[in-house]
Amino acid sequence: MQKHIWIFISCCLLFFGCSSEEPAQIVEAPMPESTEPMARPNFLIITTDDMGYTDLGAFGGQDIPTPNMDQLAMEGVRLTNFHVGTVCSLTRAMLMSGTGNFEAGKGLQRGGSSPIFRGQHGYEGRIVDRVATMPERMAADGYHTYLAGKWHLGNEEGVNLPGARGFERSFALINGAYDHFDPKLGESVYSEDGKAISELPDDFYSTNAYVDKMIGYIESNKSDGQPFLGWFAPTAPHWPLQAHPDWKDRFVGNYDAGYEALCFERMQGAAAAGTLPDGADTSFCPLEALPWDELTDDEQALNIRAMELYAAMTAHLDSEIGRLISYLDESGQLENTYIIYHNDNGPEGGGIITRRSAPERYDNSLENVGNANSWIHVGQGWADAQSAPFRKTKGYQYEGGTRVPAFIRPPVSSESGLKSNSLLTIMDLLPTIMDIAGVEEVSINAEGNEVFPIRGKSFADLIEDQSLNIHQDEYIALDNGGDSVLMENEWRIVRPPTTNDWSLFNIAVDPGETNDLAEEDPEKLADLVGKYNIHAEALGFLRGEPEAQEYFQR
Q1: Which of 4, 83, 88, 180 is catalytic?
Q2: Is 18 labeled as catalytic in the residue annotation?
Q3: Does 88 participate in catalysis according to the annotation?
Q4: Domain spanning 41-471: which superfamily?
Q5: Where are the alpha helices (DSSP H) in 331-453?
């Protein structure tokens, strides 16, 4: 009986038997007897926000300069079949816990806003103490733990802010998104060391501030002999598109040809970089947006400016990541640091100007967008181009919503340009780090309560052997409040929340998910649906009737 069944039974017993809501801390493991100090590796996790599969040059992008991330990627192993949650907080819950988002309390990003799920187990909308977090596990084994960036896993001081869930030092955006400059509204949207704060420096810009904080945290303890785990989670280029003043006009004119032209350029670049599956069809662009030539001149102008700003934010982000890496190098710490990068979900589509773009607060005229008093998105057409040739974008269980760029860069590598197409998920990152660091999994926290077992699986061996298939013949089932997926080898089933019908895809020959095989291969569909149902029943997933789920309409 495969590992998943044992985990489901354990989870089911734990899920209905655990009632404590105190923050979890792992019981400290006994230190090994040794007279010689051991040089344990550092870990830096970089989680970017709402970027596309081909934004980085190492994954095929040619229009945005990302030399620092490209160099890191090429010095390590690019992970070209890496999957995350449909939206940001689900991914962060899985990253922190090594479990599914449901086990971590994020069965739905906005758990309290839908009557179907409100108050239900697994849908708390915050990280719960039924899981032990990555920093809790690593701190208990002697690691310093730092966060600089987006949290989005709870806002209760002393309960589920970063400082209460294992981070020794943290400067975090509590919400899912906010202005990149200081809005000076007096709202407590940031926290430092677990305490909500409302005042920011006059020259605040999110990306720079996060790098400053991470460097400061690492520097403060660099001489004590303890290794560190750092989570750098910048919010750029997530909306609002507010670019650093020195960068906002650097890409003027680069996107005048429109998003369809960029789509084909990105796919060709990714094919040349070898980061697309063998069966990827790059002969057409899977657009959800209107064709470029059907837009008015004003609509084209706004679209062009939006992508110019997006490119500026991304290039500036790469430059700031370069500043962080330079600090590690110059301080002698890079040679003992694993760097793991991933994006949190697919690029976000939708309108460039939305309900968030409140006219009483923001000036979204063409001449002003990109400044501190504007609030726009990148738009559906550019998101389509960023995720192509994969289907859909952020918010969907299809490949375009969950397959993201990722890499692991070890301290020392004898080769460059390595790639692995092994199926991986964000749940695998925690056990990989623990494996490399030599941290053992424990199932009892400091309060004596059981925590969910880690569902992920270490992919540390991919550093030496990229041909390994980490999840061979294992199925991985996930759900976002009725938006469901199961992956097994080359097979994938997807069920949107607004229907009871499953689609079946063979990703090996159809990574763009253009050919639904549900009617052609009902036996395979039934097999995978049966496995999903076992998982869903064991954990206690809820699902309202599709006709009652207007909440999910995108």
Answers
A1: 88
A2: no
A3: yes
A4: Alkaline Phosphatase, subunit A (3.40.720.10)
A5: 380-387, 399-402, 429-437
